[in-house]
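Input (structure):
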C-alpha cells in the first residue's frame, strides 16, 4: 500500500552507512524508506523505536552491521516477532560472530545472512544479483576500512569523510550521496575540502596521542591504551598508529563516555571484548562499560588519569584471563 515503508536499522560507522546505501540502491529504488542509526549497545532501543514509530506502516524491517547478544536478544526477538505477526518481512545482514543460541532464537523472526569474510556492505550486496560498478567499488572501499585491511586507495578518503561530523545529519548526507552518485570518485571530490581540514589537524593530533599513550604489561601481553578526545582522527587510524609506534600486541582506544575499541594484528581481541560484554572480529572488536560519574566529571576538567586507570583495571583483568590467542590459530567454523 502507498503508506507502507521499509525501516532500516544500521550502525553509525561507515559500514553501517555503506550497507544501508547498498540495500537501498539494490532493493528499494523508488520506494519509501527510513533509516535509524544506532550503536550496538543501543540496538534493542532502536528496534523499539522502529516499532513505536512504524509498527503500523512497515512492510519490512532490515537490520545491517549490528549483532545482538545474550542480554538484548530476548527483547529484540519479542519486537521482531510482533513485526512478523503483522506480516512484516524482517531481514538481518551482518558479518560479526553470533552466539549460536541467539542466532537460533532470532532466526524464528528474521531471515539472517552472516558472512564473516566481508564487511556488512558486502553481505547486503551478496544477496542481490544487480550489483553495478558503484556497489562493487563501495564494497571494496568499505571492507578495506571495516576489516582493517586498508588495501583500497579510496578507503582513507571515504573514512575521513564519514567522520568529519559524527551526527545523524551528516550520516544522512553521506548516505544520500552513496545512494544517488554514479561513482565513488565523485563523492571523494565533493568531500576533499572536508578531508583536507581533517588531515591538517590529524597530523598534529598524532603527536598528542603519542605522548598520551600508556603501555601496560599484562603477563606476556603488551597493551597500548589511550583516551580519545578528538573526533578529527578515527579510532581505527589511531589504533593503527599506536600499535606501530609502541610495537604492542593490543591497542585499546577509550571513549570517555564508555565505548571501548580493541585492535590487534596478532591477538584475537574479540575474546577480550566478549569478556567485557561486547563483540566484533578477531583483529577489531569493541565493548561498552559504564564509567562512574566522578571519573567523567574529572575528565571534563582535564583530569584524565582516574578514568584511564578505571578502564584499565576492568580491561586488564579480562586480558589476564584470556591472554593473546593468535588470530591465525586454526579452529573450526562457528555457527
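Output (sequence):
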Amino acid at each position: 500500500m502507498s503508506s507502507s515503508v521499509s525501516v532500516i536499522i544500521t550502525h553509525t560507522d561507515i559500514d553501517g552507512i555503506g550497507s544501508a546505501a547498498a540495500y537501498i540502491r539494490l532493493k528499494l529504488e523508488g520506494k519509501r524508506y527510513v533509516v535509524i542509526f544506532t550503536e550496538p549497545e543501543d540496538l534493542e532501543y532502536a528496534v523499539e523505536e522502529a516499532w513505536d514509530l512504524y509498527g503500523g506502516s512497515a512492510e519490512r524491517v532490515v537490520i545491517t552491521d549490528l549483532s545482538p547478544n545474550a542480554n538484548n536478544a530476548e527483547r529484540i526477538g519479542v519486537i521482531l516477532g510482533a513485526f512478523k505477526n503483522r506480516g512484516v518481512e524482517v531481514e538481518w545482514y551482518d558479518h560479526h560472530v553470533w552466539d549460536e543460541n541467539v542466532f537460533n532464537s532470532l532466526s524464528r523472526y528474521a531471515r539472517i545472512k552472516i558472512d564473516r569474510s566481508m564487511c556488512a556492505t558486502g553481505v547486503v550486496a551478496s544477496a542481490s544479483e544487480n550489483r553495478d560498478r558503484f556497489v562493487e567499488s563501495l564494497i571494496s572501499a568499505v571492507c578495506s576500512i571495516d576489516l582493517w585491511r586498508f588495501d583500497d586507495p579510496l578507503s582513507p578518503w571515504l573514512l575521513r569523510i564519514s567522520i568529519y561530523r559524527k551526527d545523524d545529519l551528516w550520516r544522512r548526507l553521506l548516505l544520500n550521496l552513496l545512494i544517488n552518485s554514479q561513482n565513488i570518485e565523485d563523492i571523494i571530490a565533493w568531500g576533499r575540502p572536508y578531508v583536507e581540514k581533517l588531515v591538517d589537524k590529524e597530523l598534529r593530533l598524532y603527536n598528542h596521542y603519542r605522548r598520551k599513550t600508556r603501555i601496560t604489561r599484562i603477563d606476556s601481553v603488551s597493551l597500548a591504551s589511550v583516551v580519545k578526545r578528538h573526533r578529527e582522527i578515527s579510532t581505527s587510524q589511531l589504533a593503527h598508529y599506536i600499535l606501530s609506534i609502541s610495537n604492542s600486541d593490543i591497542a585499546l582506544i577509550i571513549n570517555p563516555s564508555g565505548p571501548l575499541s580493541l585492535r590487534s594484528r596478532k591477538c584475537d581481541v574479540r575474546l577480550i571484548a566478549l569478556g567485557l560484554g561486547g563483540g566484533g572480529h578477531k583483529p577489531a572488536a569493541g565493548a561498552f562499560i559504564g564509567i562512574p560519574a566522578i571519573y567523567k566529571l574529572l575528565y571534563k576538567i582535564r583530569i584524565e588519569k582516574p578514568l584511564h586507570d578505571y578502564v584499565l583495571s576492568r580491561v586488564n583483568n579480562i586480558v589476564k584471563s584470556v591472554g593473546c590467542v593468535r588470530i591465525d590459530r586454526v579452529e573450526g567454523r562457528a555457527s
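Notes: The chain has a mean pLDDT of 92. The chain is about 50% helix and 20% strand.
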